[in-house]
């Protein structure tokens, strides 16, 4: 839509979407444009600006996909779930979006309960791609109990010419 939004979530599952704008005095103003409840404790979230999707992790349940525009309402689809038949182990934590140069990409989730990261296609129904771990070696420690994650494919100097994946 060309507008800017911020999503806020709380530990009880509540989500607020705020439209951000220039308030005319050189400051950012905000207006609440949508609220909804995920159901239980939420954690990481990420918006896909290009496809206008919003993803949120429900810690014990899985990942939900909503429309990112305020008029999209509260309709949602489950991307994946914890437990039998799912690729996630509670707690579902951080989410991030990897944008490929060809317009495709990946949604990546931190599956804290298994110390793994789960990768889904960015487009369509977010089909499962793979699961990986970061193990000790080559001067790095094993990554466990991850909360936040982020990724970019943009070059970040000579040390990271193809981008970087960060796990906290």
Helix content: under 10%
Enumerate how many helices there are, as a single number.
Answer: 0
Enumerate the strands of the largest sheet in spatial order, edge to edge or round the barrel.
4-5-6-7
Strand content: over 45%
What is the string of SSEs from the N terminus onward?
A: EEEEEEEEEEEEE
Bulk shape: globular
Number of distinct beta strands: 13
Using the CA coordinates, give the radius of gyration: 17 Å
Distance between the termini: 32 Å
Which structural class should the secondary elements be placed in? Answer: mainly beta
Question: How would you sum up the major sheet?
Answer: 4 strands, antiparallel
Whole-number mean pLDDT: 95
List low-confidence stretches.
Answer: none
Protein described:
The chain is an all-beta fold. The strands form four sheets. A four-stranded antiparallel beta sheet has the order 4-5-6-7, with no helix packed on it. A four-stranded antiparallel beta sheet has the order 8-9-10-11, with no helix packed on it. It has a three-stranded antiparallel beta sheet with strand order 1-2-3, with no helix packed on it. It is globular, with a radius of gyration of 17 Å. The relative contact order is 0.13.
SSE blueprint:
Elements: E1 4-9, E2 14-22, E3 28-37, E4 42-48, E5 53-58, E6 62-67, E7 76-81, E8 92-99, E9 105-111, E10 116-121, E11 128-132, E12 149-152, E13 164-167
Antiparallel strand pairs: 1-2, 2-3, 4-5, 5-6, 6-7, 8-9, 9-10, 10-11, 12-13
């Amino acid at each position: 839509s060309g507008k800017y939004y911020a999503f806020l979530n709380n530990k009880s599952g509540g989500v607020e979407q705020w439209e951000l704008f220039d308030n005319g005095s050189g400051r950012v103003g905000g207006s609440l444009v949508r609220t909804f409840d995920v159901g239980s404790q939420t954690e990481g979230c990420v918006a896909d600006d290009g496809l206008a999707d919003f993803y949120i992790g429900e810690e014990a349940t899985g990942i939900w996909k909503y429309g990112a525009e305020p008029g999209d309402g509260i309709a949602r689809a489950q991307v994946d779930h914890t437990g039998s038949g799912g690729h996630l182990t509670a707690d579902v934590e951080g989410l991030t979006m990897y944008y490929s140069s060809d317009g495709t990409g990946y949604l990546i989730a931190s599956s804290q309960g298994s110390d793994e990261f789960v990768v889904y296609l960015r487009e369509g129904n977010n089909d499962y791609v793979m699961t990986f771990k970061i193990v000790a070696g080559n001067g790095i420690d094993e990554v466990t109990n991850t909360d936040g994650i982020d990724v970019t494919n943009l070059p970040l100097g000579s040390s990271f010419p193809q981008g970087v994946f960060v796990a906290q």
